[in-house]
Amino acid sequence: MREALFIKQSTKKWKEYEHNKTNDPDELASAFIAITDDLAYAKTFYPNSNTTKYLNGLAAGFHQSIYKNKKEKTNRIVGFWRYELPLIFYTYRKQLLYSFVFFIIFTMMGVLSAKYDTNFVKLIMGDDYVNMTNANIAKGDPFGVYKQGSSILMFIQIAANNVKVAIIFFVLGILFSVGSLYVSLKNGIMMGSFQYYFFSKGLGLQSVLVIWIHGTLEISSFIIAGAAGLILGNSLLFPKTYTRLISVQKGAKIGLKITIGIIPIILTAAFFESFVTRHTEMPVWLSTAILTASLLFMVWYVILYPQLLNKKLNYNPIN
């Protein structure tokens, strides 16, 4: 839009922010987000104007108000998960949707491949794993693999591996998004064939109640990491009004924030797999409650809460 119209639409809001500063952290955060958003727009379309200089000064004042002492640094960390990450999810909801859809498609490819090729599961999971699982099924303990070894050591290994996988999802996005889709393809086919294997043995419901205690958070985090990779790749493919370099820097920063932001979810999934999933004898109501609570949390935090927060803050990011 023309600069005059931009100023006309926003002047009242800017004056309110300038003359009615508050000490409430939530209101400060809301105002700061709105001002920095307007500043980003102004820098893009009116880089040398007085409007941009004015907004830059206004944003600097709010920044000093928010981060002026150590206590606020702690609030900044909390605010990242409370405000910034959910708003990023809202801004890049399309990439999250694409990542989810692709993962589901790849999972169904794994299911169909395992259904029509009896050797496919061994090809994907390995002969040793399949033979071990068959032996456990014969002994009446099909999920005995989760009971092996130390819970603490298992947690460390699983957490480290899944954090690595999430980083790979993100970093390979630089390959024009194809890299992230390839990692999604591998993990989706593996999950689909793995899950079908238990259904083919008549253990479908039991496998869901056991595996998805940790799988709900784990797979969700991989889908989100895949979205981070798509954001990085798309920033290279579609720089829009930015130079390609600046666009990639912006995409890398956003993708990195997402990848770091989901680490607590990955660690929680690893904790469940190491300390909870091994109790395969737990009551059905308890395992159902855990996986349902995990699913509801992911839907709330990644989809519903960001929408409510965006509406509350009137957040209007520039993509």
UniProtKB/TrEMBL annotation:
Q: Check the record and name the InterPro entries matching this protein.
A: SpoIIM-like
* Any Pfam family the entry gives: SpoIIM
Keywords tagged on the record? Membrane, Transmembrane, Transmembrane helix
TM ranges: 96-116, 163-184, 196-213, 219-242, 254-272, 284-304
Name listed for the protein in its UniProt record: Uncharacterized membrane protein SpoIIM, required for sporulation
* Organism from which the protein derives: Mucilaginibacter pineti
Query: Lineage from the top down?
Result: Bacteria, Pseudomonadati, Bacteroidota, Sphingobacteriia, Sphingobacteriales
